[in-house]
Each structure stands twice: as C-alpha cells, then as structure tokens.
Amino acid sequence: MGIDRLAALAAEPSVREVSWTERDVLLYQLGIGAGADPVDPAELRWVYEKNISVLPTFAVVAGQGVSAGEIAPPGMTLPGIDIDLRKILHGGQSLTMHGPIPASGSALLSSRVADVWDKGKAAVIVLEQAAADVDGSPLWTSEMQIWARGEGGFGGPAGPETSAVAPDRAPDKVLRSQTTARQALVYRLSGDMNPLHADPDFAAHAGFDRPILHGLASYGVVCKAVVDGILGGDTAAVQTFSARFAGSIYPGEAIETSVWRENNRLILHSVCPDRDGQAVLTHAHMEIR
Which of 191, 187, 209, 192 is CA-nearest to residue 200? Predict the structure, then answer.
C-alpha cells in the first residue's frame, strides 16, 4: 500500500457518461430537507416537477442515484494510489458552476487526481471531476479533498494553507436548517450507500451513538439555506461553494449557518446548536454572481 504522487498526477483522466432525471433531482432535494412545508411555494419548487429548481449541489450526486440502476457500494480506485479505504475521510468539497444544471440530462464526466499533499501523518488526495454537456459546454467542476490517515510522509508538498477566520463583526444573517430523523435514509438513495448512515451497529463500531448524516448532505443543506435565505431562491447566483467538513451531525439535529457578506463573497460558518455549537462546516465560502 502507498502513494505514488507522480504516477497519480500523470495518469490520464477517466471519462464516463452520466445521466439523471427529474426523479433523481427530486429525491436529492428531499434528502437535503427540501419540502418541509409542502404547501409553501418556496419549498414546493424544490420537490415538485412543475417549474422545478435544481440546487447547484446536485452536481455532487448527478448520475449516481436511482436512475443509474444498481447503486454500487462505497469504494475508490485511483491511479498511483493504493490505500486502506477504512482510513479515508471526506475532508472537504468545492464546486464551481459554469452553467445551470438541467432537471434531466446527461454529461461527460472527466475525473482525475489533481494533487496529492503530504500532511505528515496523513495525505490529502484532491480528486477533480469536470462535467460537460453533449455539446462540450462545461457544466460544473468539483474538487473532493480526501483525507487518508497514516498515509503521509511520502515526501510530497504540504499543500496550501488556508485560514478560517470570520470577519470581526456580527454575522449579517444566521440561517437555521432543521434536519429530520430519517433524512440520512432518504439522502443515501442519491448514491452514497455507506452503512455508517443507516446501520446502528455499524455506526457504533465506528464510534458514533447512532448513524450520522452524510457530510455532503450537510453541504447541500447549507447551500439550500443560503440560496433561500440570502439569494432569494436564485440558484444561478451561485458561482462557487467550498467547505471543509469539521464535524458530523445526527439526523434530527439542526444546522445553524452564520453568513458574512463581503461584496460578491459570502463567508460561512456552520455549527450544530444541539451540541453546544460544534462546528459542522468550516473554511466555507461562496462566490456569487
């Protein structure tokens, strides 16, 4: 086992076609808590196919849900990287939108290892995915930061240092998102079938009191809160959205997101008020159009 950074970076991207339907979009948006008030037009537009709006964060699951057929178990195969999957954590996620995501469609998805950082006791693998429509027009680019415990020390660069310092003033707005007890069971149908989010015994062996909500579900919850609460429901206003996953929440707990606006940049910090303000998303920011 180990990491060959040069081999990982030199490998040709893998390209595959993905497709999705309105049903996938509706299921994803139910899984991040949309439709809590099913007679509120602002909520209904996320979960009813008539005049449906598609959240930018749907990009992270496009092509993985029920319309993809049988959903594969969690796993990761990357060139130049041979590591124990039990040691990996999803450390962070970023998304750049190049255009709106249609409610149904297909795309060519190109995946590659964009970088590998040596953090000493761990490695960080940056996995980039770029999607384009059938005409070649770019739709989105995402970057997943995968934290691999015990895989550092291979002599690579440490990677960039980023700060998580919020402005020295009160937030411009605090947004509260309430999750539901069965939310992880719905969200997992969008592609992430890891038993950590459904099986109490599996969660207990991993050190949790009960199954936890997916990190990418929290990412989507916060995006929706900002689109609804700051951007007036305008999904096209989101240009980029980046965050680190700092802590887990249990389904049924709330997420509170503090928002500071600095011109076309929103600085975000999300916590779980049900557990004394434990951080959920940090180093989070959104560029808006």
Answer: 209
